[in-house]
Amino acid sequence: MQKDKIRIQTSETFMLSAILALSGGFQDAYTYNVRNEVFSNAQTGNIVLMSQHLMMGDWMKGLSYLFPVVAFALGVLVAERIGHRYKGARRIHWRQIVVAIEIAILFIVGFIPEKYNMIATMLVSFSCSMQVQSFRKVNGYGYASTMCIGNLRSGTESLSVYLRDKNVGALKKTAHYYGIILIFAIGAGIGGICSIHIGLRAIWISSILLAIVCMLMIKEHR
User: Fold this and answer.
1) Integer Cα distance of 134 and 128 in angstroms
2) Given 3-state DSSP classes, what are the helix, strand and coil percentages for the chain, each rounded to the nearest 5?
3) φ and ψ at 216, to 5 degrees?
4) Which of 222, 211, 220, 216 is nearest to 16 (CA)?
5) DSSP label of 112
6) Which of 45, 79, 121, 192 is the most exposed place for a label (fewest CB within 10 A)?
7) What angle do CA 190, 191, 193 make, to 5 degrees?
8) How many beta carbons lie within 10 A of that of residue 175, not counting itself?
9) Using only C-alpha atoms, what is the Rg of the chain?
């Protein structure tokens, strides 16, 4: 019974997870296209590029990839602390607190001029990591709303299980993971187009998506 109860939480529904993935893809495209081609979510890519530039002696460029990685780690730390402190809160779900902080951060980012691109990217990375730390399940399956590699691995593993055992549950799991990846890609595509045509303030679209997430969680069963 407890397992079933957890699975129907609003924060773990496919609809809410899809909106988060849409926003996650949008944010990555935004920082890459508007903020000097640095990723906000793909920290593996940032580490690769950081190491490459540092070893080539381009220290400033290398550090530009290091700072978002540090900001991402700090976001995980803050989200974990919020979850621990407010997990028992009755009037508001602790995840709503996290999303509200994300909305505020991304709204501020829209005002940051291009000469402070690094600060903007760090703030988006901080926001993304809070999200990925706070929302880790979709219908009971572990997933990530701001990156794809883990979802791709899990989805393909489930597909293999289905092909071998004809397990319908595994096929459903596969659909969830691949669906999240597809929606993330759509968000990235929309983010790229909006970033090119709108510019710095395109990130406010992510704030709107997260506001929808926050409203959906108002009726969350805890």
Assistant:
1) 10
2) 80, 0, 20
3) -65, -30
4) 216
5) -
6) 45
7) 65
8) 15
9) 18
Longest CA–CA separation in the chain, Å: 58
| Buried/exposed code over 72-105 (b: 16+ C-beta within 10 A; e: otherwise) | beebbebbeebbeeeeeeeeebbbbbbbebbbeb
pLDDT at 127: 93
Q: What is the C-alpha to C-alpha distance for residues 65 and 34, in angstroms, rounded to an integer? A: 15
Question: Other CB atoms closer than 10 Å to residue 216's CB: what's the count?
Answer: 17
d(CA 144, CA 150): 7
Please name the residues in contact with 196: beta carbons below 8 A apart, sequence gap of 6 or more: 33
For residue 149, with 0-12 CB atoms within 10 Å meaning exposed, 13-18 middle and 19 or more buried, which class applies?
Answer: exposed
What does the alpha-carbon distance between residue 169 and residue 153 come to, in Å, rounded to a whole number? 17
First to last CA, the chain: 14
Q: Tens digit of pLDDT for each residue in 34-78?
A: 987 777 777 888 898 889 999 998 888 888 888 889 999 999 999
Residues 66-122 have pLDDT tens digits of: 888 999 999 999 999 999 888 877 778 888 999 999 999 999 999 999 999 989 999
pLDDT for the residue 219: 63
Contacts of 169 (CB under 8 A, 6+ apart): none
3-class secondary structure, 144: coil
